[in-house]
Design a protein that fits this description.
Layout lengths: L2 H33 L6 E3 L1 E3 L8 E17 L4 E5 L7 E2 L4 E5 L2 H30 L4 H27 L1 E3 L4 E6 L6 E2 L4 E18 H7 L5 E6 L8 E2 L1 E5 L9 E9 L11 E8 L8 E4 L4 E2 L5 E7 L4 E6 L1 E5 L3 E6 L6 E3 L10 E5 L5
Parallel strand pairs: 1-23
Antiparallel strand pairs: 2-22, 3-10, 3-15, 4-6, 4-9, 5-8, 6-7, 8-10, 10-14, 11-12, 11-15, 13-14, 16-21, 17-18, 18-19, 18-22, 19-23, 20-21
Helix pairs in contact: 2-3
């Protein structure tokens, strides 16, 4: 055997030995990794959701709203010459909201009136000539048709002149001016947003457990408290309720009326604490959670973290909150008795994160 072949065999043997060592080392590392237990599991405190004692009243967070909100617009185009309204002011029904430059519309009315006067004279002459047999019936019919067309044209011109002004359709709270004076606008363009505040509406969201009972308003007394009137309670009157649940919170909206004369400082968008008191006794039992269990989503809504004992994972769930206490919070919807929730450190969790329950030493 030549020296060259011996050198090649030696190098091949060395490479084979090195490869076997690498494989053995990798197997040892994998075996060691398999033997190491899961580390880094976050320890969390849990609480099992239960129901509190039933009471004769419940509190809800309500939202004050207008009876209706309308965007007013001109039915004809032109340049806005006058817009005397101020945001936040109340304009009585029939009051001027905005006005276009009426010069062209006034001219159109005068032209239509002149054309109508001429058509009336022509019709009178045609009528006299028809009686004398000087013209055929067809000529008289054309003059009569022209007279009617001129009357319609005058009506249209007068209507357009009236459309050049916007008047308040009701006692209107001016919410926002959407354009400024001296702006050129097209027909149908929104000019000013107003709200009907002859009566305020207070909306609350209630869970399905209460919805069936609140459909009979004679069984409840409903009152509201607002920050603008500290220490004062307002009586609310039932108006309507939604029959379709919110797709996220699975709650139903109920609306109550509050005469604005009783609370003139209230504005749409304000919040109120609404108390629903049963005349017949207790309401369905309530669910409360520690205030520390609440977490917030990107849109500002509340959520809690649900623990699954089977997988040892936590996942968020949106909830609707009721009255907020210093220690515990009423949950209107989103939780069921028997579920386990995380009561501390919710901001450190992420969906499908594995955790280990905290167990105090005894």
């Amino acid at each position: 055997m030549s020296s060259i072949m011996r050198n090649q065999l030696c190098r091949a043997g060395s490479l084979l030995t090195l490869l076997l060592l690498v494989v053995q080392l990798s197997a040892c590392q994998e075996s060691t990794a398999e033997q190491q237990p899961d580390e880094g599991l976050r320890t969390v405190r849990l609480e099992t959701v239960g129901t509190g004692p039933s009471e004769g009243q419940r509190r809800f967070v309500g939202r004050v709203d207008a009876l209706r909100t309308v965007d007013l617009s001109f039915q004809v185009g032109g340049r806005i010459l006058n817009m005397p309204v101020q945001q936040g002011a109340i304009v009585p029904a029939g009051g001027l909201m905005a006005e276009l430059d009426k010069a062209d519309y006034d001219r159109a009315v005068r032209e239509a009136q002149v054309a109508l006067d001429l058509a009336e004279l022509d019709h009178d002459r045609s009528s006299q000539m028809l009686e004398r047999g000087a013209i055929p019936q067809a000529s008289y019919d054309r003059s009569l048709a022209d007279l009617e067309m001129r009357r319609l044209a005058l009506d249209a011109a007068q209507r357009n002149l009236g459309y050049a002004s916007i008047e308040a359709p009701f006692d209107a709270l001016v919410t926002r001016r959407l354009v400024d004076a001296f702006t050129q606008v097209q027909a149908g363009a929104r000019v000013v947003r107003v709200q009907d505040v002859t009566e305020l509406r207070v909306h609350i969201a209630v869970p399905e457990t209460l919805m069936s009972m609140l459909q009979t308003p004679e069984r409840f007394d409903v009152t509201a408290e607002v920050a603008a009137y500290p220490g004062k309670t307002f009586t609310l009157s039932y108006r309507e309720h939604a029959t379709e649940a919110d797709p996220v919170t699975q709650t139903y909206q109920i609306s109550f009326g509050l005469p604005r004369a009783e609370a003139p400082q209230l504005l749409p968008g304000m919040t109120a604490t609404v108390t629903v008191k049963s005349r017949a006794g207790s309401l369905p039992a309530s669910i409360t959670v520690p205030a520390s269990a609440l977490d917030t989503e990107a849109d500002g809504s509340f959520r809690v973290w649900i623990y699954d004992p089977a997988t040892q994972q936590v996942n968020p769930r949106r909830v609707l909150t009721g009255a907020l206490g210093s220690q515990r919070v009423l949950i209107e919807s989103g939780l069921q008795p028997g579920e386990q929730i995380v009561t501390a450190g919710a901001h450190l969790l992420r969906p499908q994160m594995r955790v280990t329950p905290y167990r105090s030493e005894r």
